Amino acid sequence: MTRQPAKPQRKRSSENLSRGIDRAAQSLAGRFEQQVALHGARLALKSHNQALTYDQLNRAANRLGRAILTGSPAGDEPIALLFKHGTALITATLAVLKTGRPFVQIDDKLPQARAGRLIEDAGARVIVADSEHSGFARELAGGDAVVVNFDVLKDDLANSNLGLAIAPSAIAYIHYTSGSTCEPKGVMSDHGSELHSILVKA
Question: Cys-Cys link to 141, which of 6, 126, 145, 160 (CB 3.0-4.6 A)?
Fold first, then answer.
């Protein structure tokens, strides 16, 4: 029996890599909106109790993005997110990216004092939370920050794209680690870097 030669593994060429770098010269939000235009009816997210197409996810994120901008119409301050993992957190993350602000995800299991230090250190003036965490969010906000309830948005918020120009160099998120001193230590990453990382792994 003649043994068939093994098929060579596909390697990423320098040309394909350069194309990935070129495509990364945009924001995460801009790239997502391109995919919505191409594949709006395809399934984007699915959980045990919810399924969203790209178009549905985009519209939900646009409405929340406008609510965020209403609470913080100017500046580039980070937006804090207080959710459990799930479709709501992904929608909220996308909404913040569409506003051009960086997001800071706050672990809902953190003690109030530590969560408050993270928000203060980041300089977040808006906290987005679902109804389950809105009480905790208001405690963290005190009188210094606005709380946007993901589950209670005004009916008149438009669901079209926000149309904001977001540079690839804009900060996308701030991730906090405890650091060697157990004090909050924020690490920032921009849209272009994150998109490039996604594309070269695709």
Answer: 145
Alpha carbon distances (Å) from 99 to 9, 31, 32: 41, 14, 13
For the chain, the domain total comes to 1
What b-and-e string marks burial along 41-73, b requiring 16 or more CB atoms within 10 Å of the CB? eeebbeeeeeebbbbbbbbbbbbbbbbbbeebe
Residue 133 gets which letter from DSSP? Answer: G
pLDDT digits (tens, 9 = 90+) for 91-132: 999 999 999 999 999 998 999 999 999 999 999 999 999 999
Note the pLDDT of residue 24: 60
CA distance 102 to 98: 10
The CATH code of the domain that includes 145 is 3.40.50.12780
Is 5 a domain residue? no
Backbone angles phi, psi at 51, to 5 degrees: -135, 135
Average of pLDDT values for 86-90? 94
Q: Which structural domain, as residue segments, surrounds residue 54?
A: 27-156+165-201
What phi and psi values does residue 94 have, to the nearest 5 degrees? Answer: -65, -40
Who's near 173: CB < 8 A, 6+ residues apart?
A: 102, 103, 104, 105, 188, 189, 194
Between CA 125 and CA 150 the distance in angstroms is: 16
Q: Is the pLDDT of residue 181 over 60?
A: no
